[in-house]
Specification:
The structure is a single chain. This protein is α+β, with helices and mostly antiparallel strands. The chain has one domain. It contains 2 helices and 4 strands, in the order H-H-E-E-E-E. The protein has a 4-stranded antiparallel beta sheet. Strand 3 and strand 4 form a beta hairpin. The longest helix is centred in the middle third of the chain and has 14 residues. It is globular.
Length: 89
């Protein structure tokens, strides 16, 4: 099960990402993306949800959170908006 506080701390740790973190010109994670991701986790993720498999930066300055066993990727854009990808067969 998900530990919301642990997930939020993992998101907040992305604040320390520096420019070119990926060696390909990746941008630092924006404050708007961090705030949006933390708010979303607090307000919309149930404690019974499985622990996420990945929380990390995107090259554009956003945040990607994925649940691979559910085929779900939640991406927070640098401007604070988000996109949800669900793959079902």
């Amino acid at each position: 099960m998900i530990n919301k506080n642990q997930t939020i701390e993992r998101i907040k740790a992305l604040k320390h990402i520096e420019h070119n973190w990926d060696g390909y010109g990746g941008f630092p994670t924006t404050d708007k993306a961090i705030q949006a991701a933390c708010k979303f986790i607090k307000e919309h993720i149930e404690v019974s949800t499985e622990q996420e498999d990945y929380v990390g930066p995107t090259p554009e300055g956003g945040i990607s959170i994925s649940w691979l066993n559910e085929d779900v990727i939640l991406e927070f854009l640098p401007d604070g908006n988000y996109e949800l990808y669900i793959e079902r067969f």
